[in-house]
Amino acid sequence: MFPWNMFSPFKRDQSGMMNGMNPKDIDQYVQGMMKQMIPKEWQGIMNPQEMMKNGSSFMGDMNSSAGGNSGENQKQPAQIQANVFETFEDVFIRIKLPSEELATQMRVFHTSNQAIIENIPELGERQVITLPSLVKKKGSTAQYKDGILEIKIPKSVDMQYTEVDVSEKY
């Protein structure tokens, strides 16, 4: 067996390295990195600490923590809360709606890689959701149940590929 640990740069003082670290410094570093990595459009939805705690529950009330972190006084259009996921055959979009009336007034369109939601949360507004994979033009369905609108779009099996010739360079 090869002695891999002989080449480790961390073998000296590895146990003492963690003893000198302050957990608050580590937390501050992680929070700063999260702020840099999250797109600016998402920063008003959740703060990074709550995102770490509630990372798996995207359908929760995310606007409750939208607070005065940013000093901007610009009015940005309200964003809908959408949970997008895919299975082997379909792409699902789940949108939390407070009333069934919103489901009747909204319009839903989609391209091969985007879903367009109109007239929600207010009339005349338009939201674009990027889909995780290519979808078919036909066969999509939408159902409203228990305050959640679920849109199901079948995935497209796009196997268009071209062979690339690999040759030796002389």
Using the alpha-carbon principal axes, give the shape: flat
Number of strands: 7
Strand content: 15-25%
Q: Radius of gyration in whole Å, from Cα?
A: 23 Å
For the biggest β-sheet, the strand order reads 1-2-7-6
How would you portray this structure in words?
This protein is α+β, with helices and mostly antiparallel strands. 19% of the residues lie in helices and 22% in strands. The longest helix has 15 residues, at 23-37. It starts with 13 loop residues before the first helix and ends in a 16-residue tail after the last strand. The relative contact order is 0.11. Mean pLDDT is 75; it is low at 54-73.
Show the helix and strand layout:
Elements: H1 14-19, H2 23-37, H3 48-53, E1 82-86, E2 90-96, H4 100-105, E3 107-110, E4 114-118, E5 126-130, E6 141-145, E7 148-154
Antiparallel strand pairs: 1-2, 2-7, 3-4, 4-5, 6-7
Brief characterization of the structure:
With 170 residues, the protein is α+β, with helices and mostly antiparallel strands.
Name a few traits of the molecule.
170 residues; alpha+beta; 4-stranded antiparallel beta sheet; 19% helix
